[in-house]
Write a structure and sequence with these properties.
This protein is α/β, with parallel strands linked by helices. It contains seven helices and seven strands. α3 (69-78) runs parallel beside α4 and α4 (102-130) packs parallel to α5 (151-170).
Length: 259
């Protein structure tokens, strides 16, 4: 199926690896022009080179620390005219309330919560003025199936879910679609790095990390794959499903209802 995304300019944050890179790759396969954004220049350059070789498309990159307001404003100045914004940058520490300082809360919110909101504030008016655009917020199940062990993520992601619902209800009058995706546990570098650390402690061998993936803990017996999140994002960004805004889709394999 042709998703009608050829030549769209897509900006993806947190794009040097994991879900962000997978999303960029899927858009590139549809013939979109991609701008990758991340704070790590070396990883970003490598990701851009990989996508160019893989897709043959137009792939650019901008290095920016999106936890800083001035960096977000500078990003908008460098790439103001995009068709699709994918907010994906952000990592929030796990742990209960007692394990965190106020600085942990500020750090988690500055990049993900304020980062997403600020980029929407920058890009949405321009998209609304020209009567076209799409914003995708990759949020996370931590804001829906809240857990004490991920309390900063519970608060931050819940805020972004509500923000996405509200903004996406307002913008269709100007032909701007805003929607979100809540991935559950996804097999990214972040997950495997954590499991390697645990395997080193338990087994004395980080290469045994896969033994810690208990299939009974996951729907379908496994975590989600980044490419599954990416393909959902690209499909929903297509004008073929234009009648979609204000929705945040839970991609958790039904786990929240399993008891």
């Amino acid at each position: 199926m042709d998703l009608d995304l050829q030549d769209n300019h897509v900006l993806v944050t947190g794009a040097s690896k994991g879900i962000g890179l997978a999303i960029a790759r899927s858009f590139a396969q549809e013939g979109a022009r991609i701008t990758l954004v991340s704070r790590r220049e070396d990883a970003l350059r490598s990701a851009a080179e990989e996508l160019r070789e893989h897709s043959g498309g137009i792939i650019g990159h901008i290095t920016a620390d999106l936890s800083k307001e001035e960096a977000r404003a500078a990003l908008f100045d460098q790439a103001p005219d995009i068709d699709i914004l994918v907010n994906n940058a952000g990592a929030i520490k796990s742990g209960p309330l007692s394990a965190h300082s106020m600085e942990d809360w500020r750090t988690g919110f500055e990049l993900k919560v304020w980062g997403y909101i600020h980029l929407c504030m920058l890009y949405a008016p321009r998209m609304r003025a020209r009567k076209s655009g799409t914003i995708i917020n990759v949020i996370g199940m931590g804001g829906r199936a809240v857990r004490p062990s991920y309390i900063i993520g519970a608060a931050g992601n819940a805020a972004l879910i509500g923000f996405t619902n509200a903004l996406g209800a307002e913008t269709p009058q100007d032909n701007l679609r805003v929607f979100g995706i809540n991935p559950a546990a996804t097999r990214t570098d972040r997950m495997t790095d954590r499991l390697r650390s645990e395997a080193r402690q338990q087994f004395g061998d980080e290469n045994r990390w896969a033994e810690l993936l208990n299939p009974d803990q996951y729907p379908f017996g496994r975590p989600a794959h980044p490419q599954e999140v990416a393909d959902l994002a690209v499909m929903l960004a297509s004008p073929r499903v234009h009648y979609l805004s204000g929705t945040v889709i839970d991609m958790d394999g039904g786990r929240q209802w399993a008891g």
